[in-house]
């Protein structure tokens, strides 16, 4: 009997260790990628080391001009990352609307929404960084009972079309790659990988992960922790090849009691690359003889 009990106990311990190991793997931080990316040239980067925000790259306000009262970003720097957060102050500013704290690289009147409270002349175009074809990557995590976090990009023009790399409470769940637009993209979307997606809030909040978007002449690709998740066909030339702007933000919980808790979007870095041109070997001209 003792032998049987010992065997059963051992098996249960092994199973428990295996499950613990699996949980640890899912909750652990995914390591940062090297800065140098083979086949790509770095165009813009922000490692968010602080102590000041790089306002040559970022507009620290949510869609300037959309509201009469400016929705400034709330953030601080810690451990080599920027912590975008919402709090009681953001909630007060967003009476009748969801609290948001965000950064973006471009702005113009009616950037994507039609409900702007400002006039066109009151919202001058501001372009810190835009680019169409390339590789765009962040390493980030979220903390607390927020509504959702967002890493999205859209065509830098009035009512441009939007690509959501991450914008969903259950990211990177079924809506991992969404297209929202007054003029929808003519795309064919297809799942590429059966990668085990993170689903629980506890696991998502436990560690950093990498989220990336690749834009090429024929479409887009989405990556999670360097694994290709999904791709879509887009005829960019037909769309006019408008460059893209970039947005990082946290949308606070709509429950007032949640503002007593920490709600943060912690971003380690943002990096933008462009594809290196392939050089074609030239034939040896010899000595001319």
- Average residue-wise pLDDT: 74
Distance between the termini: 94 Å
Task: From the alpha carbons, calculate the radius of gyration and give it in angstroms.
Answer: 22 Å
Overall structural domain count: 1
The biggest beta sheet reads: 9 strands, antiparallel
CATH topology: Jelly Rolls
Helix content: 10-25%
- SS content category: mainly beta
* Bulk shape: globular
Number of helices: 3
What's the CATH class, please? Mainly Beta
Annotation keywords:
289 residues, mainly beta, Jelly Rolls, five-stranded antiparallel beta sheet, 13% helix, 33% strand, globular, disordered N terminus
What report would you give on this structure?
With 289 residues, the protein is mainly beta. The chain has a single domain, classed as Jelly Rolls. The chain has three helices and 16 strands. A hairpin with a 2-residue loop joins strand 12 and strand 13. The N terminus and C terminus are likely disordered.
Element layout with pairings:
Elements: H1 2-27, E1 40-46, E2 75-78, E3 81-85, H2 88-93, E4 100-104, E5 106-107, E6 126-127, E7 134-143, E8 148-155, E9 162-167, E10 178-180, E11 189-191, H3 201-206, E12 209-216, E13 219-224, E14 227-233, E15 244-251, E16 264-275
Question: Gist?
Answer:
This protein is 13% helix and 33% strand. It is built from three helices and 16 strands.
């Amino acid at each position: 009997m003792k032998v049987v009990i010992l065997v059963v106990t051992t098996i249960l311990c092994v199973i428990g260790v295996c499950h613990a190991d699996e949980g640890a793997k899912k909750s652990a931080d995914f390591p940062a990628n090297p800065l140098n990316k083979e086949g790509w040239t770095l165009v813009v980067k922000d490692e968010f080391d602080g102590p000041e925000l790089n306002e040559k790259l970022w507009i620290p306000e949510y869609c300037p001009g959309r509201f009469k009262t400016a929705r400034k970003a709330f953030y601080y720097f810690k451990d080599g990352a920027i912590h975008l957060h919402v709090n009681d102050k953001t909630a007060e500013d967003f009476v009748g609307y969801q609290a948001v704290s965000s950064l973006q690289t471009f702005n113009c009147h009616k950037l994507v929404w039609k409900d702007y409270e400002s006039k066109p002349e009151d919202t001058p175009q501001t372009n810190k960084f835009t680019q169409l074809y390339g590789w765009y990557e962040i390493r980030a995590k979220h903390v607390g009972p927020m509504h959702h976090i967002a890493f999205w990009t859209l065509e830098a023009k009035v009512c441009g079309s939007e690509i959501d790399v991450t914008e969903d409470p259950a990211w990177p769940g079924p809506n991992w790659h969404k297209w929202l637009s007054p003029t929808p993209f003519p795309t064919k979307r297809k799942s590429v990988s059966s990668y085990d997606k993170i689903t629980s809030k506890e696991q998502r909040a436990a560690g950093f992960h990498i989220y990336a978007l690749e834009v090429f002449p024929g479409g887009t690709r989405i990556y999670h922790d360097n694994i290709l998740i999904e791709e879509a066909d887009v005829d960019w030339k037909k769309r006019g090849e408008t460059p893209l702007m970039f947005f990082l933000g946290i949308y606070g919980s709509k429950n007032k009691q949640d503002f007593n808790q920490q709600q943060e979007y912690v971003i380690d870095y943002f990096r933008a690359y462009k594809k290196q041109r392939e050089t074609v070997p030239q034939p040896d001209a010899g000595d001319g003889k």
